[in-house]
Amino acid sequence: MVKIGSLTISPSLVNASCAWASDLSQLQTLFDSPYTGAVTTRTSTVNGFAEDESHTVAFASSSISSLNSYGYSPHKLAQYLVWIEVILSAAPIPTAKPFIISITASDADSLRVSVDAIQTLRAKFAQIGVEFNTSCPNIRGTTPPGYAPESLAPLLGVLAAAWRADESLTIGLKLPPYVHASQCVSLVNTLRTLSAAGRSPFAYIACTNTLGNSLLFAEQVTDPANGPEAGSAFAVPPALGGLAGDALHALALGNVYSFARLLEAETESGLRNVAIVGIGGVTSAEAAARMRRAGAAVVGCATLFGQEGVHAFKILSGE
Ligand SMILES: Cc1cc2nc3c(=O)[nH]c(=O)nc-3n(C[C@H](O)[C@H](O)[C@H](O)COP(=O)(O)O)c2cc1C
C-alpha cells in the first residue's frame, strides 16, 4: 500500500495510461481487477483527438515490446468523467480505489477547463487524481512539452495554481524518457520553482512514456498494421512511433534511478516527497522488482497489459 498525495494505491501496481484503457468496459475491467491499485485512463483532451487508421500499435516478435503511433484518445475528457462516475457509483461496496485521469492540453486555458471539470467530479468522488501527460511523441508538428521547458512551464503553472486552491488534489506528471542527465536536472529545477514553503504541488512523476522517433520493420513484429502486402515496409503506417516494453526497460530504469537520486537530495523544496511511478518494460515480476529497486514507489505497465489483457497484473504481482 502506497499513499501518493491523497490517493491510496493498494496494491502498488497500476496500468499505465494507454489505448487499452480507452473505453468504459476496459476501465471497468481494470477497476474490477484485485491486482490493480488504481486505474489510469488513456490521455484525453477537452475536444477529443481525431484518430484515423495511421494511429495503431504493433508488437515485436522477439521480445515483449511495442511500437505505437497513437495520439490521444478520440473520446473527450467529459466522456471519461461520465464513465468514471458510472463505475464508482455502481461499485458494490464503497471503495477508495483511485482513478487517475490522464489529460493533456497545449494551452493554459484548456488545461484550466480540464482541471475544473475533474474537480467537479472530485466533489462527489475524492479518490480521483490527475496525471498531466507531457510526453506523447506522436503528435505531428508538436514537441512534447516534457522536452520543451519553455512550453512546459506555463502548463505546470496552471496545475500548481489548481493545487494551491485545493491541496487535496493529487497531481502527477507523465514524463518522456530522458537520454541525458542534464534533462533530468532541468526538470527538477523547473519543479523546484513551483514549490512553496517546502511543499510541491506535484505528488508524483511517472517515468517514462514511450521513446519516440523509433522504427520497426514489418518483419520485426507479429501483427504489422501496414505490412508488405499493404505496400509498406514498416510496422506502423507513419514508420516512426513510440517504443515501449522490454526495449525501453533499461532507459526507464535509468530515468527512475536518476530522478530518485535527484529528488532525495531536495531537502528544502519538498521535492523529496514526490513519489515515482516506474513505467517502461515492466513485463515480469522481476522487472517490477527492478523498478522498485531503482526507486519507484508504484509500478505500471502498458505493453504487457496490451499483450496479456488484465491478467498482466497478476503476472506482475508474482502470484
Ligand atoms: C498503445 C499504447 C498507447 C499509449 N497511450 C498513452 C496515452 O494515452 N497516454 C500516456 O501517457 N501514455 C501512453 N502510452 C505510454 C505508456 O503509458 C507507457 O508509458 C509506455 O508504454 C511504457 O510502458 P510499457 O513499457 O509498459 O509499455 C501508450 C503506450 C502504448 C503501448
Automatic annotation (TrEMBL):
<keyword id="KW-0665">Pyrimidine biosynthesis</keyword>
<dbReference type="GO" id="GO:0005737">
    <property type="term" value="C:cytoplasm"/>
</dbReference>
<dbReference type="InterPro" id="IPR012135">
    <property type="entry name" value="Dihydroorotate_DH_1_2"/>
</dbReference>
<comment type="pathway">
    <text>Pyrimidine metabolism; UMP biosynthesis via de novo pathway.</text>
</comment>
<dbReference type="GO" id="GO:0006207">
    <property type="term" value="P:'de novo' pyrimidine nucleobase biosynthetic process"/>
</dbReference>
<dbReference type="InterPro" id="IPR050074">
    <property type="entry name" value="DHO_dehydrogenase"/>
</dbReference>
<feature type="domain" description="Dihydroorotate dehydrogenase catalytic">
    <location>
        <begin position="29"/>
        <end position="314"/>
    </location>
</feature>
<dbReference type="InterPro" id="IPR023359">
    <property type="entry name" value="Dihydro_DH_chainA_dom2"/>
</dbReference>
<keyword id="KW-0288">FMN</keyword>
<keyword id="KW-0285">Flavoprotein</keyword>
<keyword id="KW-0560">Oxidoreductase</keyword>
<dbReference type="InterPro" id="IPR005720">
    <property type="entry name" value="Dihydroorotate_DH_cat"/>
</dbReference>
<dbReference type="Pfam" id="PF01180">
    <property type="entry name" value="DHO_dh"/>
</dbReference>
<protein>
    <recommendedName>
        <fullName>Dihydroorotate oxidase</fullName>
    </recommendedName>
</protein>
<dbReference type="InterPro" id="IPR013785">
    <property type="entry name" value="Aldolase_TIM"/>
</dbReference>
<dbReference type="GO" id="GO:0006222">
    <property type="term" value="P:UMP biosynthetic process"/>
</dbReference>
<dbReference type="GO" id="GO:0004152">
    <property type="term" value="F:dihydroorotate dehydrogenase activity"/>
</dbReference>
